[in-house]
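Predict the assembly for these two chains.
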Amino acid sequence: MINLLFFGRLGDCALEVDKSILYQDDLATPLDVRDWLAKAHGDLGQVLSEPQVLVSVNKRIVKWDHPLADNDELAFLPPVTGG
Amino acid sequence: MSIYVSVQTEDFTVANEYQRLRQITHSAGAVVTFSGLVRDFEVGSGKQSQRDSLKSLTLQHYPEMTERLLEEIIQESQKRWSTLGVTVIHRVGRLLPNDQIVFVGVVSTHRDDAFQAAQFLMDYLKIRATFWKKADVDGTEQWLEAKGSDTAAAARWDGSHRD
């Protein structure tokens, strides 16, 4: 399985999304997952494609072509606003 | 070097945090502390001068990742300034105007290191640490957008590396 997390305003756009997806060959990178999500959830696909959105795997910021492994935690992060 | 990082819902007491930093070592010559508070207004997205009344702020974060990022920011500060101890506390959950939201404290041998490291830590925390604010502005909940001024504030440290 790949566990999905959506933070900040991205979470509001992902309310309908199943947060646990089956690990499979055609979902090999965060980019693949984003494109796959966009097919069923167009609005979500759009906000995830904004250039300032970052992606992390197992709590480390990675590039969009980072290889995914089974049981990875994949998180989508909008620009941070702490402090 | 003593590091204390906490992401918590509970409030903090500046006097206690000051004492913790002060007691780390007798080599200490300076303690600088910063406390961030929740303002009761948010500048509207329309006219620059417009101020919308803020009722509450709800902070979300990414557990474990946030703490690690804060520790990395502290380690980054150590490459630039000579500090003896650093405390970073950030609150999460629902906060009200005038509540304390963030604390940064630095103890060093000489004041300049503590002043600069504290400012650097706040600037980098703002653009790196995985916190997100949702504001109740006049009864409407909205996620706050990142500010370009925060990115600019952090950029001033580019090239300040100590070699």
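Chain A has three helices and five strands. The beta strands of chain A are 2-6, 20-21, 54-57, 60-62, 73-77.
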